[in-house]
Amino acid sequence: MTLALILVPLVAAALVFAVPANRWRPWLMPVASLGHSILVVFALQGPPVRALGGWLVLDPLGKIFLGFVSVLFFICSIYTARYLNLGHERPNRIFCVCFLLSLSMMTLVILSHHLGLMWVGMEATTLAMAPNIYFYHTPRSLEATWKYLLICSVGIAMALFGLFFLAYATLHTSLEPTLLLDDLVQHAPELSHPWLRAAFVLVLVGFGTKMGLAPMHTWLPDAHGEAPAPVSAMLSGALLPCAFLAILRVFHICNAAGEGAFSREIMVVLGLFSMAIGAIFMTGQRDLKRLLAYSSVEHMGILVFGIGIGGLAVFGALLHVLNNGLTKVALFLSAGNIQSAYGSRSTEDVSGAIRRLPITGTLFLAGFFAITGSPPFGPFLSEFTIVNAALGSDQFLAGALFLLLLAIVFIGMGSTIIPVVQGDPPEAAAQPGFRDGFLTSAPILVSLALVLLLGVYIPPPLESLLREAAALLEVKR
Amino acid sequence: MVPLLDPLLIVALTLNFVALGVSRIRGVINAVALQGVLLGILALFVHPAIGTRVILLVAVTVGLKGFVIPRYLVHALREANIQEEVKPGVGSFMGSLLLGAVGTGLAMVFSDTLPLAEQHKHLLLVPASLATVWTGFLMLTTRKRAIMQVLGYLLLENGIFMFGLLLLEATPFLVEVGILLDLFTGVFVMAIIIHHISREFASTSTEHLTELKG
């Protein structure tokens, strides 16, 4: 069962590789993804999932991420299949194989309770995504891919160094050196604290690079900007949160060892810094997808900020993973439609989207309101929870800065997005052959509907999962 | 510990300087490859109780780091028609050698202050690891050629691997092989991208990759 979760997309990738027909190959992705989702449903409801002697375990934290990634992937895969068929002269074999491989490896990252294995999965997701960023074979996408590959690989290598430090911290205990999460958490108080602190910093910097935290985010706007829209959506919605999960695993150990305060302080500062960088670069940004990419930097900042604040904010941050991911998928996919219709993603060429693409334009606008934290969408609820926790625990300065940055982002992002959606379409004729279609707008509609749902009603099973996961990361005083 | 360990590590450290100072790319590839082989052999000395696991690990490490990856890089070099000269981006070879030396010295001093376990107190392994990581970073940041940046990444990984030798118990064989496999796939994908860069810009200097800003 546990292994099947990883193997199903892997086998599907092999099958897809063998399919000769360029035209209907992409449709195997939603099929495989649906299979994965069905398995996930069983895994979430059934008996405890455990395999390989405790190396693969599905804990509450993993359940949230696994369910989320599976849903997100299914939504994206439908859009992707249609997207690839629109440009059906371009070979898509490698694309489809890599897309499915990344799902398999993300599942591995989420299930791993052996941190070494988790690292292997994380690096594999990085590599699997690289050819997809280079899908269009333009000089610009080449540059983006190179930066992505090198910066992320070096970052993740630093995380490995950090994990080795973590294992070294066990040498001072009665424990054999290990990287098994459960052993490390259990024996956390005995671990050597200097090594533990060094490990946390390296892991935060290393996986933080993959997660897109400033100032290690430099690859992110390029990769998100140049990649095909569904790839940007997956990167932003699923892959960055997986790196966040990896950081949470090590944070969990630090917390259990009584080093929570140390790690939380760093996370608050890094989170606010990422939000500030996001806000600065979003203001006056002319490239729609780069705008969304910087919004990802901002929201990754919000996630670590929430964990850093602690208490109820941990719940808020975990909820925000879902809210941000779904909204980002909606935004990137609609940006993809806009780019297809206008043949450009620069604000100089795109205006009046709501007239040329009524459905996409409306959804894009709604997505903008959602991502900037307007009620009644989900991000409002999660961001409100985080602010509330910050102010409630007397962290006034952090809370005030958080609110200020959110306000700047709202204005900065709005000044770009409103003119794109409103106004008159440019004189130049529309790109032939692209109109709002069912398959290009339904995935966006579904993800936004889920965001709306999360804003007004959190299903009780999800809420109890979030509470359990937050309790895992709760600060022990 | 075995007396041979320190001399081997000193050779590995010397190779860092060779990698920084040699002017032909192939020379750098050879230096990094030889260092990889040495690291594989080191595993035999660090672990007195040699089982099949350690021998297998040594075989895989030496095979990948010493032969497969360097061969593949040389192949990529030929395919992409890359000229052999290395152009350091900042200063000169003397500059980067000097920085390398300073970093290595600092690594020695710094690791004395680390709270190492008793059995690792007088080992050269930890300072050598830090010095190699430093050299890797130096190469990543001062060299403009894409292939040199890959070699910098490999040096960095070698340095981390050295530290990992202290903890072979923590990383089971499967994980160790997974890490090496990731490394190989990484270099494989990077080499493909380099090939495309050379075709696109008729050069493999990353100076051409400055289109994306803001």
Describe this structure in words.
The complex is a heterodimer of chains A (477) and B (214). Chain A has 477 residues and is mainly α. Chain A contains 19 helices and two strands. In chain A, helix 3 crosses helix 19 (460-472) and helix 13 crosses helix 19. Chain A is globular and about 70 Å long. Chain B has seven helices and no strands. Chain B has helices at residues 5-21, 25-46, 52-79, 93-113, 125-142, 146-164, 173-201. The interface between A and B is large, with 48 and 43 residues.
Show the helix and strand layout.
The complex is a heterodimer of chains A (477) and B (214).
Chain A: H1 2-18, H2 28-45, E1 50-51, E2 56-57, H3 60-86, H4 93-111, H5 115-133, H6 139-169, H7 181-186, H8 193-211, H9 220-226, H10 229-256, H11 260-282, H12 288-309, H13 312-342, H14 353-356, H15 358-371, H16 378-392, H17 396-421, H18 438-456, H19 460-472
Antiparallel strand pairs in A: 1-2
Chain B: H1 5-21, H2 25-46, H3 52-79, H4 93-113, H5 125-142, H6 146-164, H7 173-201
Which range does the strand content of chain A fall in?
Answer: under 5%
Number of strands of chain B: 0
Q: N-to-C SSE series of chain A?
A: HHEEHHHHHHHHHHHHHHHHH
The amount of helix of chain B comes to: over 70%
Unreliable runs of chain B: none
Beginning-to-end CA distance, first to last residue of chain B: 53 Å
How would you state the average pLDDT of chain B, rounded? 84
Order of helices and strands of chain B: HHHHHHH
How big a fraction of the residues of chain B is strand? under 5%
> pLDDT average of chain A, as an integer?
90
Side by side, the strands of the main sheet of chain A go: 1-2
Q: Which structural class should the secondary elements of chain B be placed in?
A: mainly alpha
The biggest beta sheet of chain A is recorded as: 2 strands, antiparallel
Tell me, briefly, the overall form of chain A: globular
Largest interface: A-B, 48 and 43 residues
Helix content of chain A: over 70%
Number of strand elements of chain A: 2
**Low-confidence stretches of chain A at least 5 residues in length (pLDDT < 50)?**
none
